[in-house]
Amino acid sequence: MKNSLAVTLLLAGALGTAASAYAVDTRARFIAANCSYCHGPDGKSRGAVPSLAGLEPGYFVDQMKAFKDGSRPGTVMKKHANGYTEAEYEMMAKYFAAIK
Amino acid sequence: MTINRRDFIKASAGAVGTAALGNLAGCASVQTGSAGPKVVVVGAGFGGATFARYLKLWAPQAQITVIEPNTKFVSCPFSNTVLAGVNQMEDITMPYDYLKQAVDNFVPDTVTAIDTAKQTVTTAGGKTFAYDKLVLAGGVELLFDKVQGYDAEAQKTIKHAWKASADQTGVLRQQLEAMPDGGTFVMSVPMSPYRCPPGPYERACMVATYFKKAKPKSKVIILDGNPDIASKKPLFLAAWKKHYGYGTDNSMIDYRPNNMPRMVDAKTMIVGTEFDEVKGDVINVVPPMRAATITGIAGVRDGNSGNWCTIDYRTFESKVTKNVHVLGDSTLTNFPKSGSVANNTGKMCAYALSEEFAGRQADPAPVVTNTCYSAGSESTAFHVATVFRWNEEKQSMVPPPNANGISSEESELEMAYMESWARNVWADTLGLPESYNFTAKG
Ligand SMILES: Cc1cc2nc3c(=O)[nH]c(=O)nc-3n(C[C@H](O)[C@H](O)[C@H](O)COP(=O)(O)OP(=O)(O)OC[C@H]3O[C@@H](n4cnc5c(N)ncnc54)[C@H](O)[C@@H]3O)c2cc1C
To answer: Which of B400, B428, B438 sits opposite A37 (nearest CB)?
Structure first.
């Protein structure tokens, strides 16, 4: 009884830390970093390629879908959009939207 | 942000491990003391620099040592524009200052010995560093002795310019400037696999663009070791036709497939192939290449007759030696040997190790991409782009349907994107701040 209470308390404490330490979706962060050699570190571009940081998530996902189905013409984005799932569009949209 | 159930369980396991049980959750082979795992990175090119920077971002507890002899980063991408006279060496040279600030230890030295049993590396300067994880990102080794006569003396005259530097790219540009109008530039393409498949054909375009303006009676002869143009063939052919008269009697570019240079003579200025002897006023032979010298020292050149390094796609760990990871051009993968890939896979390796250090599994189904822009003329460019995803059936990383292709045609818009790509990949690799003043022009 005593032990299991200790474990419970320990878990509760640990989870407190966990929530803050692991609140990052590391897969979303990695997939989003795939884009930075063109869109800039953290999606902040240093040139003609548009920035992704701070884009409204709905707009972001719509653009990815539009590149994929061809309704938005582009040079290179159709190939990149075809390589990711719609769930991944959502993950990345959320990640970039949160960058100030 | 919400945490899903899987993350919740993983997170609690990691946190309990750290809080109450020491490092049970960590990988047994990594000594995660209070100082964090020791990671030694050999080479701060596109692969090593990106890896080091991102590992520090994603696993701040890691103790990262980067060993690199060059005082500044000189970019191979865009170095062909220096041959065209569009940019100068300064424009493709960037500081390591920001990378130095990002990592724990930046050592200006060359690694000369590796003990994979003791897990140490030793430098020419006599320093020894212990590692938990070693990352070899040394680029490529050029095999001059595969070309008869390409000795140290000949190398004073004949430049490869396949590792960008003032002594290579800079001198080759000077030679082109000194060449009289009506002269011949002889260049070569090594047999695949080699660093930057479209690079040689882009080089032909950039030298021809300079000749067209400054020395219109001059010629570019391409001696290709391969049976055909190895990358973006329709786009290069279109650019050669449109800008340099290819296919006419007056073509500035003379393309010769199946013509591997076997010998050079720097005194008589001759390149010999199996069939021919070709005389040039300026000669630019790129010798055959293999994985960086340091991978030979580490004993991890296991692939393709012992020339390249095979890796586990999920972690970039060498298939022959534990805790040794290989990045960039040294690896034998489905990816082309490009700066984009070295940058992107550097992050993939940083991601895998940061997950391992946090007591989690590396992502079992990673995704990475390549895009290579090439300039067809001073104002136009085009691309090849591919997304690679883990395929369980093939146990490999392959492009999903329609996630691979080339530009429909060259354009000025893509030249603007190529310039932007260069700035962004340099910034991403070296940690250049938003205020950094780029001078390279597309
Ligand atoms: C002419 C040309 C044009 C190109 N254009 C493009 C392009 O447009 N787009 C593109 O994506 N790619 C391009 N590339 C390809 C790109 O340059 C390479 O793919 C990329 O540099 C590979 O990165 P890397 O980290 O493997 O090697 P490198 O970038 O070569 O870095 C290796 C580093 O390791 C260091 N090193 C080596 N040995 C040791 C040692 N023993 N100890 C310590 N340090 C060591 C070296 O000094 C070097 O800094 C081009 C290449 C060329 C030659």
So the answer is: B428
